[in-house]
Design brief:
The complex is a heterodimer of chains A (280) and B (236).
Chain A: H1 2-8, E1 14-17, E2 20-23, H2 24-43, H3 49-86, H4 90-105, H5 108-122, H6 127-131, H7 135-138, H8 142-167, H9 170-178, H10 183-213, H11 225-236, H12 241-266, H13 275-279
Antiparallel strand pairs in A: 1-2
Helix pairs in contact in A: 3-4, 3-8, 3-10, 3-11, 4-8, 5-8, 8-10, 9-10, 10-12, 11-12
Chain B: H1 4-49, H2 52-67, H3 70-91, H4 101-127, H5 130-138, H6 143-173, H7 185-196, H8 199-228
Classes of the chains: A mainly alpha (280), B mainly alpha (236).
C-alpha cells in the first residue's frame, strides 16, 4: 500500500513509448503480469500441445463458425421480429413479443437441451425424416446447437431492432413516401439502413456476448474449442493448463472481435446526425 | 402423446425434484447476486476513487469477466480453484477443503455479476449531479455520511434498470451449474425428461418456472422503480 502511494505521488516517473506517455505504476503492473505469465508458461506442463494443436485449431474454427452462423442467421430473423413488434397487427405483434419474452426469460441451456433432446426424440415417429438425405446431418449435434444459438440471438436482437426501427425519425419515412417509394423500397432504402446503423454498436457488443454463449453447444456433442480442451483435461489429468488455455483463447477471440467491431463502427456514415438535420 | 391425464400424473410425480431444483436455482441466484453487488460496489469505488494501481486492477477484472465465458469461469473455479487452494493448504500443513457445487455456483455468479455491476454502479454514481456532493460537503457531512445519505440512495434511480437486468441474468445463469453436475432446475429437468422420455412436457414446465421467476421479478422491480422515482425530475 505504502509503495503504491509513493508511485502515485511521483509525477516524474513515466516513460514515453511510441509517442504515448506510460505511467510508472502501469509498467510495474505489466512486469508483474509478465512474470506471472512466464511462470505459467515455464512452470506448467504444456507438452500435450504438440499432439493436440490440430484439434485445438479445429475447435477454434468450429466455435467461430457457430458464432458467425448464429449471428448472421439470428440477425436475419431479428429484422422481421423487430418490425413485427412495431406492427399494428395484433397477431404479428403478439407473436413476436411472445417469442422474444419466451426466449429472453428462459436459460439458453434449457432451450438448447429442449431442442436437442426434444426434437431428437420426435424423429423416430416420422419415418420420412429418417429416410431423407438430411438425416445424417440431423444425427449430429451442430444443427441443434446452431438453431438454439440463432433463436437466442434473434430474440435479443429483435428487441434491439425494434428500438432502432422506432427511433428512425418519422419525417424521413414521410419524405420517402412523398417521393413515391413503395413500402418495400422505403424499408430497403431508408428505414432499414438508418435503423441498422443506429443498432450497429449494440450489435457488435452483443456479438461479443454471443461468443461467450457458444461453449454451451459442447453439451450437445459439438466439438468446439471448449469440448476439445475439456477432452484434453480428461485425458491428461492436468488441472490448470487446459482451462488456462481455454480462458486465453476466449480472451484473444474477444480482443479480435472488439478490434474488428471498432473498425466497423468507424465506417458508419454520418454518426449522430443533429436532430434538426434529421427531422427537417 | 399418451394424453393429458398421463402428463399431469408425470408432472405431479416429478414435481418434488423439480421444485427442489427451482428453489436451489433461486437461492444460488440470490446469494450470487448479493455477492456480485458487494463486488460491484467495491469495483465501482475502486474505479472512481481508487489510486492508479487499484483502478487498473479493477479495469483488468472487468475486462477479463467480459471476455471469459461463464462456463469456463465455472470450470476454473470448480476444478482449478479448489486444487490451487488445497495445494497451498497442504503446503502449509492444513487439511484440504472441499468446495461444493452450491458454493462454486454462488462464487462464479457473484464474480461474473460483480464485473457487470461494477460498470452499472460506476455509471449510476457518475450520473448523480455533482451539486449534490458539493451541497453535502458544504453542510459538513463526513465521507461516511455522504456515502450513506447521498451516493448510495442517489445512484438508485440511475442504476436500478441495469441492476434489475443483472438480477434476471443471474437467475438464468444458474442453469450453467447443470453442466458441472449440480442439480438445479435445468439438470433436474433433464433427469426427469430422460427418465420419462417426456421431453417437451418437462422442458416446458421448467421454462414456465423460469418465466414465473422473471415475471415475479418484473412486478417487484416496477414497484421499486416507482418508489425510487419519487421526487425525481420527470424528463419531459
Amino acid at each position: 500500500m505504502k509503495q503504491t502511494r509513493q508511485i502515485e505521488t511521483a509525477p516524474g516517473f513515466a516513460i514515453v513509448l511510441a509517442g504515448r506517455r506510460i505511467p510508472g505504476h502501469r509498467l510495474i503492473l505489466a512486469v508483474i503480469f509478465a512474470v506471472i505469465l512466464a511462470m505459467i508458461v515455464t512452470g506448467l506442463d504444456w507438452g500435450w500441445l504438440g499432439r493436440w494443436w490440430p484439434e485445438i485449431i479445429r475447435g477454434v474454427v468450429i466455435s467461430l463458425l457457430m458464432l458467425l452462423g448464429s449471428v448472421v442467421l439470428g440477425f436475419a430473423l431479428a429484422v422481421p421480429l423487430g418490425l413485427m413488434q412495431l406492427s399494428p397487427n395484433i397477431v404479428l405483434n403478439g407473436a413476436a413479443r411472445g417469442f422474444c419474452t419466451l426466449i429472453r426469460g428462459t436459460p439458453l441451456l434449457l432451450q438448447l437441451w429442449l431442442i436437442y433432446f426434444g426434437l431428437g426424440s420426435l424423429f423416430p415417429h416420422f419415418p420420412w425424416i429418417q429416410e431423407s438425405i438430411f438425416f445424417p446431418i440431423l444425427r449430429e449435434g451442430w444443427p441443434f446447437g446452431l438453431l438454439a444459438l440463432t433463436l437466442s440471438f434473434a430474440a435479443y436482437e429483435g428487441e434491439v431492432m425494434r428500438g432502432s426501427f422506432a427511433s428512425v425519425p418519422r419525417g424521413e419515412l414521410q419524405a420517402g413516401k412523398a417521393i413515391g417509394l413503395s413500402g418495400w423500397q422505403l424499408l430497403r432504402r431508408i428505414w432499414f439502413p438508418r435503423a441498422f446503423y443506429q443498432a450497429l454498436p449494440t450489435l457488435v457488443g452483443e456479438t461479443v456476448l454471443q461468443l461467450k454463449s457458444t461453449p454451451l453447444v459442447a453439451t450437445v456433442t459439438v466439438i468446439d474449442i471448449y469440448a476439445v480442451l475439456y477432452q484434453v483435461r480428461q485425458e491428461t489429468l492436468l488441472t490448470y493448463e487446459p482451462l488456462l488455455l481455454l480462458a486465453a483463447v476466449y480472451i484473444i477471440l474477444t480482443g479480435i472481435l472488439v478490434l474488428l467491431g471498432r473498425q466497423i463502427e468507424m465506417r458508419i456514415p454520418g454518426r449522430r446526425p443533429s436532430p434538426s438535420a434529421s427531422s427537417s | 402423446m399418451e394424453g393429458f391425464g398421463h402428463s399431469w400424473l408425470l408432472l405431479v410425480e416429478w414435481s418434488p425434484p423439480l421444485l427442489r431444483g427451482f428453489l436451489a436455482s433461486l437461492q444460488i441466484a440470490a446469494l450470487g447476486y448479493s455477492l456480485g453487488l458487494m463486488i460491484g460496489l467495491t469495483g465501482a469505488f475502486s474505479k472512481l476513487y481508487g489510486n492508479p494501481v487499484v483502478r487498473d486492477l479493477a479495469e483488468v477484472y472487468t475486462t477479463l469477466i467480459r471476455a471469459i465465458p461463464e462456463l469456463v469461469l465455472l470450470l476454473l473455479l470448480y476444478f482449478a480453484g479448489p486444487a490451487l487452494i488445497n495445494q497451498l493448504l497442504t503446503h502449509f500443513g492444513r487439511v484440504p477443503i472441499d468446495i461444493s457445487g452450491f458454493a462454486a455456483g454462488v462464487l462464479v455468479i457473484g464474480i461474473v455479476q460483480g464485473g457487470y455491476s461494477t460498470e452499472v454502479i460506476r455509471g449510476a454514481i457518475q450520473a448523480i449531479p455533482s451539486g449534490q456532493f458539493e451541497a453535502a460537503r458544504a453542510i459538513g457531512l463526513s465521507r461516511g455520511q455522504i456515502l450513506r445519505r447521498v451516493t448510495l440512495p442517489g445512484m438508485l434511480p440511475y442504476g436500478l434498470a441495469g441492476l434489475s437486468n443483472l438480477w434476471l441474468i443471474a437467475t438464468k445463469d444458474t442453469a450453467l451449474l447443470a453442466v458441472v453436475g449440480y442439480t438445479e432446475l435445468t439438470l433436474a429437468t433433464r433427469q426427469a425428461a430422460g427418465a420419462t422420455r417426456s421431453f417437451f412436457l418437462f422442458y416446458s414446465a421448467a421454462g414456465f418456472l423460469y418465466l414465473l421467476a422473471t415475471f415475479a421479478s418484473w412486478m417487484v422491480i416496477r414497484r421499486l422503480q416507482a418508489r425510487i422515482d419519487r421526487g425525481q425530475e420527470r424528463s419531459a
